[in-house]
Amino acid sequence: MKKELRRDRHTVSLLTDHMVFSPKYWGKVQVGEVAMVAEAVIRKK
Known about the structure:
2 strands, alpha+beta, 1 helix, two-stranded antiparallel sheet
């Protein structure tokens, strides 16, 4: 799979991941081991 650069007016980027969090309005979606692994990855980044 070839990754392509996104070119905007003022930026060039290569987006590989997209995460959206809205903890104020949603209940727990990730629980257990999945939640722990996701938190570890986020904290590492």
